[in-house]
Amino acid sequence: MRTVQLLLFASRALGRSNPGSAETCGLRPSTPFDSGPVCFPGPEYLSGQCQNGGDCASPRPHAWTRSSPCFQSAESEDRFCVFTDAAFADGRGISLVTTAQRANHVATAPAFTNPELTKHLNQDLVQTVPARHEVREIPGKGMGVVATAPIPRGALILANTASILVDYRAYHTLPTAHYTDLQTHAAAHLPPAHRAALLNLSSHNPRTNPPADPADISGILATNIFDIDFDTDIDIDIDIDLDLDPEDEEKEEESPTFAALFPAIARLNHACRPNADYRFDHAALAQSVRAARDIVPGEEITVSYIDAVRPRAARVRRLKRGWGFECDCALCVLEGGRQREADERVGLIGEVKGVLGDWAWHGAGGEGTGMAELLVGLFEMERLWTVMHEAYALAALEFNAVGERWRAVKYARLAVEWGIPMVGDEDEDVEDMRELAGDPRGHWSWMRRVRNRDALAK
Ligand SMILES: C[S@@+](CC[C@H](N)C(=O)[O-])C[C@H]1O[C@@H](n2cnc3c(N)ncnc32)[C@H](O)[C@@H]1O
Prior knowledge:
By secondary structure, the chain is an alpha+beta fold. It is built from 16 helices and 15 strands. The strands form three sheets. It has an eight-stranded mixed sheet with strand order 1-10-11-9-5-4-3-2, sandwiched between helices. The protein has a four-stranded mixed sheet with strand order 6-7-15-12, with no helix packed on it. Helix 13 (388-401) runs antiparallel to helix 14 and helix 14 packs antiparallel against helix 15. Bound molecules: S-adenosylmethionine. The site of S-adenosylmethionine (SAM) has 17 residues, from strand 7, helix 8 and strand 12. Residues 140-144, 201-202, 223-224, 266-267, 269-270, 323-325, 329 line the site of S-adenosylmethionine.
């Protein structure tokens, strides 16, 4: 269900030897924060001779306001530049590090054509509605976000349009110096207040303020960037090594296309059992954060940086490696027997999900429904509020699969109620649960296990 996840850029493999060739599409700025020439859509683009081997006429070039030096990877035809639209989202601005073709494709998103979509969305720089939270120093964590008023489950807490979008192919195919140069220009081209907010974010690297060293921009991005599985229909053939922890299987499956920075959301600290979750809206190019349960004033608002349904040792290792801190959230500091219990529950969750997800299984003798109720109980015990809808959905399917209609409807309704704030009204699993709740007998899962049993008996 998840489409986005915080991802570590800091794990970038060092010492690669893929020399790139610097190309400028005009005069090169003399300092990192100097203005670059306006060169996109450039003459080659307008004349239809794109460098990317793509179709120059479609999508139509967007009127990007700025550009920068471009770099071509020795490994591919791709030429990466910075594309900035300073007018985006009511003058907040956005910068992309990508190819001309992909930049122009991204610019077909409704966020560029319908200003209503992003109006008042970003409340960090221009505040038009009273906030129910504030950014504060949190002992041992740097800055963080704390509730200043009650926030009910499902309420929108924060939203940001993307400030910087970085193409994974640039990250994986350009030499570090060129990639860093592009990142620096991407930040430098944003309007001043936006740029200042971004440069004020935390970084793994020790830095001066304002940062003068381009490496600091990389540090800021490495610490704060989210991974976006961008919904794009242009052909993306990326064969990348994400340099992952062997336990990060979900990453290998997702092959994200862009990494994105959302400065206000980047202030949220991690907890393994967070009280909020984030999701990306492709139309608005915006990330939003909603309360996963009721939050009381004074409580820190947290999200999980990782898939937290795994044992403590794996979580601790991943957080240390990715974000450089020792996890001391409530779950990570459980003592002795309780820690062991929590790890065992996490193991059991994986096991039960595996069995229930197998639609060839017959689940005779109430075994499937028993496991489904166990799963809901385990999610509650583990306080997995951000993903409760997943447990409810599996339970709904299981009860429907043995013809227990009313219990199926109950869990489907719960899945919809908990799913909407976390994954959105239009999410396909939410939609599936809505269909099940409305017409259990007409749903694909109806009597599915019973049919398996009948088939076995023949
Ligand atoms: C995305 S930033 C979060 C906001 C950051 N604390 C700030 O001051 O802007 C990620 C960084 O915050 C810190 N951090 C986040 N969650 C933490 C936690 N649970 N415990 C300690 N440090 C944490 C780490 O330094 C991490 O690299």
